[in-house]
Design a protein that fits this description.
- This protein has helices at 2-14, 19-31, 36-51, 64-72, 77-94, 109-114, 116-129, 144-153, 159-162; strands at residues 52-54, 60-63, 98-103, 134-140, 165-168.
- The protein is of the alpha/beta class.
- It has one domain (2-168): Phosphatidylinositol Transfer Protein Sec14p.
Length: 169
Amino acid sequence: MLAQINKLDTIKNDFLCEDYLKCKNKLISIYHSKNYDKNISIIFDETLCGLCKLKEDNDIILDYRYFKLLSSIKFDYEIIIAYIVDKINKSLNVNKQFVVHVCMKSLNLIDIEKNYSFIRKMSEILKTLFPDKLEKCFIYNAPIVFSQLFNMLSVFIDKKTLEKIQIIE
């Protein structure tokens, strides 16, 4: 149990690191550069890697802040979905189930509404391709609006899945 708590603390601290700010600053500088089209694919790849990573222990890390950066560029949801599905498949090559850690920092109600089609499509794909493959989902830095929304929607989520979701303060 202590090892699990230390692991969660380590991941929570990783979400506080400066990589996100470096990526955001690069994106801003590319917007103001003359080689926007040439450099955008480089920052897109870096941002995609920040959005979804596979840790050494095969846990999947999803950081919403990078998704928000991607939404500021013109991007295709299909590329993001394929990238996340690939990471899940790689984790499942080693494990029977996957563990996901999600950073919700900077999420707001407008973002949920704006990206509703992505959220819906991603949840359908996860439900279809990976039934009963989620071992645990840890949610970090959830804003109050998410916590309230989650509490309302939890009545529609089956009990088995709901037990796998843990909000980390």
